[in-house]
Amino acid sequence: NIPKTQKVAIVESSTAPIHVVNDYPVKQPQDLAPGECLVKMHCTGVCHTDLHARKGDWPVKPKRPLIGGHEGVGEIVAIGEHTSQSPVKVGDRVGIKWLADSCLDCETCRKGLEQSCLNAKLSGYTVDGTFAQYVVSYVKHVTPIPDALESTEAASILCAGVTVYRALKYSQTTIGDWVVLPGAGGGLGHLAVQYAKAMGLRVVAIDTGADKKELCLKLGAEVWIDFKESKDIVKDIKDATGGFGAHAAVVTTASSSGYEQAIEYLREGGKLMAVGLPGEAKLNASIFFTVFKSISILGSYVGNRQDAREAVDIAARGQVKCYYSVKPLGALSEVYEDLEKGKIAGRIVLNME
Ligand code: 8ID
Ligand code: ZN
């Protein structure tokens, strides 16, 4: 009962419109390679990374034509013949994350940095992604979804959630520390507010607009700064943190502006976690004050299989909840326009059924 064709959203080039087509071929079970699985999608989140992929504005270029999407949930309907030691089986509900597959046998993978494997396959970037009803993925890397978590609630944990969870996990902060979250009202940011709270951190949320302000405060941010209204962000943060500045910042803005001044508003020994991915910008950090204040600047890139399971488990236990609205696949172009304009508080999840 696996159909021959399906509905997908596809882009031919960076400038071509997004086409939703109904007659795109479905890879049939007998054609799956060992290690591959076919996932019948329930839903998929739309990440700002999908917009970067659509625009082709990163130094590493996506495949074309491209079916984007990399935070989806669905059911495994087939597994390639001769697959050995599959951790999942037909009928399992699983998540597809940005890291579709990696070799698991290079030094990078063995050290747990699977996402930086030189042979990594990236969903919705170097391999077709989740803006499709049937997605080919990889048994070793799909993430089992616990029953307690609905598919629409789980979707954005697979990218936005795991990414901020890992960035916070490696931020060397501890209960009671202050963390600044530029981009706090967006897809990654609003989940970062909640993972940070779950870790016992105190949150300074930075973003703009009434909707995002309300969301961040509702989710537990102690301090809100509107970056379009503040006259002096460094002073605002220092005032809010007893004059010393924050212990860490996790920057999830898609433009470089969110990185500005971080070295100034971090306290001595502070950690700057770089997460947001403007394609061309350079980090403009004072070398002098980075050294003088013993600041660490760390890049954090999605997460490995274990990070994904941990981030999903925390959501399944209700400690973190994605704030989202559901739209049809046909709305993808508008969703990209709204993301570009910074209009989306939280996430949009597309219904793929
Ligand atoms: O593994 C990774 N490092 C990873 C994983 C997933 C996504 C990185 N990303 C990258 C995306 O590619 C994108 O560049 O993180 C960035 C944010 O993704 P998102 O959360 O999906 O985007 P969004 O929902 O548009 O949220 C961005 C927020 O930043 C705010 C916007 O208002 C929006 O709410 N913002 C901006 I743009 N400039 C700001 C500023 N100067 C700002 N907030 C505070 N200060
Ligand atoms: Zn993403």
Describe this structure in words.
It is a single chain. This protein has 353 residues and is an alpha/beta fold. The chain folds into two domains: 5-158 and 303-351, Alpha-Beta Complex (Quinone Oxidoreductase, Chain A, domain 1), CATH 3.90.180.10; 162-299, Rossmann fold (3-Layer(aba) Sandwich). 24% of the residues lie in helices and 26% in strands. The longest helix is centred in the middle third of the chain and has 12 residues, at 187-198. The two termini are 15 Å apart. The mean pLDDT is 98. Bound molecules: nicotinamide-8-iodo-adenine-dinucleotide and zinc ion (ZN). This is GroES-like protein.
Q: Find the CATH topology of the largest domain.
A: Quinone Oxidoreductase, Chain A, domain 1
Number of helices: 11
Which term fits the overall shape?
A: globular
What is the name of the CATH class of the largest domain? Alpha Beta
- How many independent structural domains? 2
Query: For the report, how would you describe the main beta sheet?
Result: 7 strands, mixed
Supply the CATH architecture of the largest domain.
Alpha-Beta Complex
CATH homologous superfamily title of the largest domain? Medium-chain alcohol dehydrogenases, catalytic domain
User: Nearest-angstrom radius of gyration?
Assistant: 20 Å
| SS class | alpha/beta
Strand content: 25-35%
Strand elements, count: 17
**Low-pLDDT segments, ≥5 res:** none
How much helix is in the residues?
Answer: 10-25%
SSE run: EEEHEEEHEEEHHEHEHEHEHEHEHEHE
Q: Ligands in the structure?
A: nicotinamide-8-iodo-adenine-dinucleotide, zinc ion
Overall mean pLDDT: 98
How far apart, in Å, are the first and last alpha carbons? 15 Å
